[in-house]
Amino acid sequence: MDGEWNNRFLCTMMPDVMACLRQDLAVIEPDFVLLTGDIASKQTKDAMYEARNLVESLEKPYYPMGGNHDFVLDESRSWFLDAFQHRLPRPNTFYSFTHKGLHFCVLDAWWQWEDGSLAPVSEAAVAAELDKTVENVRWQLPSHQLDWLVEDLARHPDLPTIIAVHYPVLPIPTRLHRPGFKNGGALDNGPLLMHILRRYPQVRAIFSGHVHMHYILTQSNVTQVVTGALPEYPVEYREVLVHNTHLEIKTRGLSNPEFARRSLIPGKEWTSGEVQDRSAIIPLTW
Ligand SMILES: [Fe+2]
Predict the structure, then answer these.
(1) Cα gap 127→21, rounded to integer Å
(2) Cα of 211 to ligand 1 centre, how many Å?
């Protein structure tokens, strides 16, 4: 379904985008692709499998992660686990893995309901409006995942670690705010997570999506890298080069610039971020 976030959000062009990305990744030859969530836009089992098949068409190893469009209904997580079982290190929506000495912890935030309770599924009224607005919707990491994360980090103190969670932990910086811009929000208990991560200096970065724009921010030992959505301008992804002493983050557009052109609403180029949002060096030593 197509719509408008800050620029035109063109889900219908995704088959063509993915075909182009497949060719582009064949040149870059990444070890794997990390999906930052909102893989399917509609909440049906068929939509989840359709999106899964598009990701498979890249012909690259990948790690999936759920977002607010993926984990909405009672059945959502079982569809996800079913569709991606062959790609998950364990049959769960949050998991960790180590690739060539770099450790990753992938998380699954839950919905904060209006009465303050936390649930894996959204309220019906929120689900009905999901494509239009997420204003006043909040997400949190449930305590069992924070406990799991702490235990996982304590077991791997020597491995540089990246946290992956769909919702940014550090909110969009005010320097990128524009009048009337749509702000998808940040993890509601992000400050608590940052407090925890400060005790684990091996955590070097957080990779997130959700807000359909690029930004990069560093706070204490952690660099938050937020990457825009592929169906929306600037139709770019991050390339992460892993060196002995540091990670190098680069931002790459598709070889066919037509997708970005179709999505752009003139004057809203700012979703591609400023210079400091488009590349970064993240030390892997501490
Ligand atoms: Fe999202």
Answers:
(1) 30
(2) 7
Q: Measure 41 CA to ligand 1 centroid, in angstroms.
A: 9
Q: What is the pLDDT along the chain (286 residues), one digit of tens a residue?
A: 799 999 999 999 999 999 999 999 999 999 999 999 999 989 999 999 999 999 999 999 999 999 999 999 999 999 999 999 999 999 999 999 999 999 999 999 999 999 999 999 999 888 887 777 777 789 999 999 999 999 999 999 999 999 999 999 999 999 999 999 999 999 999 999 999 999 999 999 999 999 999 999 999 999 999 999 999 999 999 999 999 999 999 999 999 999 999 999 999 999 999 999 999 999 999 9
The DSSP element (H or E) to which 106 belongs, if any, is strand 102-106
Encoded tokens for 103: 């450790």
Strands in 118-119's sheet, in edge-to-edge order, are 118-119, 110-112, 138-140
Q: How far is the CA of 209 from the centre of ligand 1 (A)?
A: 7
Distance from Cα 68 to the centre of ligand 1, integer Å: 5
Burial 108-145 (b: 16+ CB within 10 A, else e): bbbbbeeeeebebbbeeebeeebeeebeebbbbbbeeb
Q: Tell me how far the alpha carbon of residue 141 lies from the centroid of ligand 1, in angstroms.
A: 15
CA 110 to centroid of ligand 1, rounded, Å: 12
Between the CA of 60 and the centroid of ligand 1 the distance, in Å, is 23
Q: Return the CATH fold of 3-283.
A: Purple Acid Phosphatase; chain A, domain 2 (3.60.21)
Give distance in angstroms: CA of 231 to centre of ligand 1: 13
Angstrom distance (rounded) from CA 162 to CA 236: 21
CA 244 to ligand 1 center in whole angstroms:
33
Ligand 1 geometric centre to CA of 208 (Å): 10
